[in-house]
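INTERNAL AUDIT FORM
Audit reference: QA-55
Scope: verify that the stored structure record matches its stored sequence.
Auditor: D.O.
Record contents follow.
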Amino acid sequence: MKYNRIKLLVQDDFAKLENAKIILLGVGGVGSFCLDCLVRSGVGDITIVDFDTFDETNQNRQMWSELHVGENKVEALQKHYPHVKIINKRIDEQWVWDFDFDAYDLVLDAIDDTKAKLAVAQKCHKKLISSFGSAKRMDTTQIKVDDIWKTYGDKFGSKIRYELRKRGFKKKYKVIFSSEEAQVKEKGSFMAVTASFGLTMCAEAVKKIRE
């Protein structure tokens, strides 16, 4: 059976995975690996949101990208995961405020737009798992998970914390980040780190579903 090995691990909790309803925002380097992990873990109801198309430069870090250059990401990924629901929309601040997240058990944030990320945190913090930057890094052993106020070592994360404080936001939510110092100024990417962020996000989602 397809899910026998995961069932051996989670046992009766597998029903929770089958019945979970998750929305994944962004299916690039981090999000595409998170999606694959969620599907292979038996999560039953997954919605993915993205507007972008696969580019040749995505091939070093994004799942299935080499097969679909020029194609819309969510539509291409649905060919590999037919039961996944897709929303082909740009995730900006206004979209976040307008969208109804109430139906979902978890919101997984793998986007890099600052204003949209802040809106997701403010609106969905009670059921949010968010990813900070995975680019510019090489060491998977420095990937960490903690609440937003305990994150460090990431300029993007520092900006998010600063902006949340400006908005008077004091709530906690789970964040995946790296404590490794950036290796370059440019946005270079190493698949081992990018994929590990996505797999960690999936692992945290499964943990939360089982609680």
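Auditor finding: record pair retrieved intact. The chain has a mean pLDDT of 93.
Action required: none
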